[in-house]
Amino acid sequence: MLSEFRLEEVLYNRAWCRTSVPFLHVTATSVFISEYYNQLDQAFRRILKDGLDGQTRRRRIARSMPGYDAYGMTFPFDYNGPFALFMSRHFHDMVAGLFRVPCTGHVNCGIHHHAPGSVDGWVHNDLNPAFFVDYPSDDGINIVRHDQCSYARGVVPEGKPPGRRVVRGVAMIFYLCNDGWEWEDGGCTGLYRYKDSPVTSPDVIIPPLNNSLLAFECTPWSFHSFMSNTRGARNSLIMWLHRSVEDVDLRWGEDKIVEWTREQ
What we know:
Elements: H1 7-10, E1 17-19, E2 25-28, H2 34-49, E3 71-74, H3 89-99, E4 103-114, E5 129-132, E6 142-143, E7 164-175, E8 189-192, E9 204-206, E10 212-217, E11 223-226, E12 234-244, H4 245-251
Parallel strand pairs: 4-6
Antiparallel strand pairs: 1-2, 2-10, 3-4, 4-12, 5-7, 7-10, 7-12, 8-9, 8-11
């Protein structure tokens, strides 16, 4: 469980790589010590063992992301298993600090499972709005609560106050449970210089190696996409930190925020 470890105790490789092409991003391999990574691996496999569901269900992985060929599950605010470290204040501040983004403490974290043969995603930048309900927490971190407020739309139950509108500020993908991965398996993350680049022609390819990660600031130019996995499944944890709308407006203009489509 999370209480067994502190962040400084579980980090193994601290020599992370910053690269500016095609946009600034950070990669790392052998991120965590084996004892902690094995806990993450086992926890992910337990979730998968519960079965893949076609409907959105609390604490169960499901096909719930319109337009995205993957199963997913968002961790609830009261989750306290091994993945809770990713939603801690220390981890939040470390990832935000990689890009000096003034993040607000609002976190959306979950897992994705791409079955073998999942189709390509689409080239996009993740600079999307998001909505949260604020609640008291010991470390000031607010986890998304879908039961209280729609993450993408801000819809709340009748009589409830509106959610806080923020914007995705930093994205991080942590790859796990992809044992024996080889290039022929696919399931990579493509990084692109242009939005109209073909998904199959990325400028940089990030392989989904176990215990590795990719992180980048969400900007008008942080174009990326999932690339089809031809053989084995592709598994990952995905996390977004958020910044204020005012901060985005000052830096690039509020018009650069990419509103969700009806299909998303």
